[in-house]
Design a protein that fits this description.
This protein is an alpha/beta fold and 420 residues long. It has 2 domains: 159 residues, Rossmann fold, CATH 3.40.50; 202 residues, Rossmann fold, CATH 3.40.50. Helices cover 33% and strands 12% of the residues. The protein has 14 helices and 14 strands. The strands form 4 sheets. A 6-stranded mixed β-sheet has the order 7-5-9-10-13-14. Strands 2-1-3-4 form a 4-stranded parallel β-sheet. Strands 6-8 form a two-stranded antiparallel sheet.
Amino acid sequence: MDMKIPLVLGIAVVAVACAGFLIMNDSGDDSGDFAGREIVPVENFDDGIVAVGQDSFRWVTYFGLADKCVMVDQNDMTNYLGKSFMYVGRAQVDIEGGDSAKLSSGDAARKYFTHTNCGITTDDVRTILELKPSIMVVPEAFYNDYRNEMEQIEAGGINTVAIGYIYTFLERDGLGITDDLERQIDVLATAFGMEERGEQLKSAFSTLVEDCLSLTSGITDKRSAYIGSLAYNGAHGIDSSIPYYIPFELAGLENILSGKVDYSGSGVKTYKASDIGSNIEDDTILFVDASGYSQNNTNDAKGILRMFQGKDAYLVAPYIWTGINYDTIFVIAYQMMNQAYGDDVLSDSELEDRIDNVYNLFYGTPYSNRNISAINNYIAPLPGENTSIFDDMNSLYLVAKGNPISGTVSIDSDGNLSYT
């Protein structure tokens, strides 16, 4: 895949501390990986990549190396809900595993997916030692949560590189990328011997931020907004939100919630109805994260939703799903500009072009490469030629969750949601 960043926008690029849990860098600098270990660059990928744990396959796909993966996380076999990289990245085991994300123990490909979500088991250790991959990408937390397993892997001479869990990746002041996001990219660029691609990725973040700020610079009267149903550790209802929601910052919207930026975790938490209702203004827009739209059938959820009756309300793409959806966050920001301000900021046709450009920057293509239709307990027909990542994700959500990832939302007098 050609991973060169297209100069679509013609914009000048302006160029959470995640400390290691177990092994720290003695020098106290950031020259090692996120577990404080020396980074050993890969000489070649002949023996493949093992990418297990949260975000590992995501970042490997950003670097255009998905097809080098000989083993990936179980969660990256089945969980397409919002993880846009899974619509592009095709690991070797995925390519060879057939049209199903329901592999049974008797399937020969089963051993090349981990046997637990975002972790490793002793069976997985045996497989990794058999594979002897060129490199293994894991979250730094593995050195604490799977200490014995990691000791066995490293004793077997496997070259490993540890990445961080990074949710809040833009600074509140100025919206520059955080030091940890830059470090994440640099760690992997060094490990993969792909410094040029690393610089392209950093430029992608900065280019998209600059474009968003350029589009919203003319807004003189910002609208207020609330985002509900944000996912963390599974889908959640309308009371699940965050005080620093990056798409609001990019889209020129004022969050009705206030609070400190949490750079150490997702920042998502549950709010009381009184915390939400007391801050609703006449112009407040309700946004509902598509991942949790279907979770709003309880009396508590309906009570909160009734407070937004008569307000503008919309569905938006998923913010978090087993890690932060870095690329899709920019897609959400563009959605919100279009929904909140219309043609004055971003028209429908411009929105489609901007969404395609986001995925071009991160993947070198805006088109879905999904080749699995049998997923968990539902069937999602395979995309046709030149189906966009966004449209394919929308189609899959309609099948799996019963709602799209974009649309206008209505709230009746009983607090029931419907969409158009």
